[in-house]
Protein 1
Amino acid sequence: MVVKVYGPVYGSPQRVIACLLEKEIEFEPFGFVPVIQDGDYTLYESRAIIRYYAEKYRSKGTELLGKTIEERGLIEQWLDVEAHSFQPPLYDSVIQVLFGPRLGMTPDQTRLDENEKKLAQVLDVYEERLSKSKYLAGDSFSLADLSHLPFGQYLVAGLGKEYMIKDRKNVSKWWDDISSRPCWKKVVQDYPVPV
């Protein structure tokens, strides 16, 4: 069976596509919001979707949920950090810089500066964490890392703020690793951001 992924092929739906590729699940992208249809089952919100597929196809492809309950706890912790601390300032900046001007909006430099300051604080926490482990939740790539790929890509490519990653030795090494995974390279190549 082919999974149907509804949503534009940028941002949050890219998170879902990367997970499906890691789990080696056949899918068909189309639609307007991040929603999947798996037989009669429908689910929305990209992080719920990636958790669903990582669990449903746990024995297939890359193990993304950890091998122990403790690993799973760390993965969930870093997924929350990504959702509540990493993505929000980036999302606002992406809207301000990449999409707002197309709608006649002028970017608010004060908000952009505040967003960069917030993100720098988050990346400083990541720098400390990544000095102790290869990935955010331990020594194996997981959903915690995968979930950072779409907006991390916006940071380095769309917003031109790669220095925020490169200026942090451990974050830079981590980003180079996760963004060079074959699944992510395929997402970036096959589903480019339309801006």
Protein 2
Amino acid sequence: MEKQMLDFTLVPGGLLLMLGYHIWLLFRILKHPNKTVIGLNSLCRRYWVRAMMEDVSKNGVLSVQTMRNSIMAPSVLASACIMLCSAIAVFMSGKYGDRSLGIVFGDKTPLSISIKCFAILVCFLTSFFMNVQSIRYFSLASILINVPLKKIPPHHHHSHNHLTVEYVGSVVNTGSYCWSLAQRAFYFSFPLFLWIFGPIPMFFSCIFLLLMLYLVDIRFQSGWPLGLSGLDEIHPATEDGGALTV
């Protein structure tokens, strides 16, 4: 009973730490985008889309190659996720109820093992789904970014120019957000995998993962990177840490 209490205390504690961190990160992205890597990258992608669409005939090949390279990473990760899902499904369908590892602390019942494997399976399926959505948006952006704006009739050119650039920028950013969510779901499978060996490794892996994500998500330098001074013309409200328009 004492070992089962570890699952009832440490596992929810680790999950709450992960949830609280991502709620805080979402608040930072929406309110202070220039202080987070995700927010700054979003602004840079909008600036890049605007620069690529200024001269489609000159930048068309570069933009398509960039979108193609962006599709490769989600494709590889999606393939890995679906293979891991198949492996977990085979493991869950086998007879493992009588198997137990001596190094495991906590609940060792077949029901608990099924719950742990199912949680890992959900993470991989979520990562696979978000990777597919990322590929979908990047594929769409590779077409939209080459729209010949200069061939639009003059009486529609001014209105469609701003709308098309902003829409393509939002499509590219949506694909990147799906890719980031897919990575988060894949990362979250690591603590759940260690949960098989007990709640103690799972809890400490959550703390380690949060520290690593904090170093990746937060910018410690002040000011804009060199060469991005034109961002204040596109998003003037973000120079002082204002809200990010997604």
Protein 3
Amino acid sequence: MYSSPKKNSSRPKQPNTLRYVNLDECDDSIYGDSTHQESQPDAFDEPWPYRFQHGDCVWVRSTGYEWYPGKVSGQPKVGQTMTGDGLFWPVTFDGNKRKYAAPLNGELKPDTPHTRQLLEEAGIL
């Protein structure tokens, strides 16, 4: 378990209804744009438009703001992110825990050398 600083949110949390999405028909140009896929965030909590695949190794932030290594475990759903509609990926982590997480909310990152460097710089890893 790794933890990052907690954020204060003064607005009440609204339930987010996730909807099934057909990726072949989904207009997610922000994910499909190769410049976004190749660009990398400067800070760990920054949103990162990224399209994952089933089985990808990731880092996921839990509801308690701890970061865990995990694995994408299926196809995404679409829902409201901090920046509008975005993809939420099903992730398994910490043994048998499951969560839908959105890269555009800054709560899901690919397990890459750059991500690990950001984890170290943030004092999480």
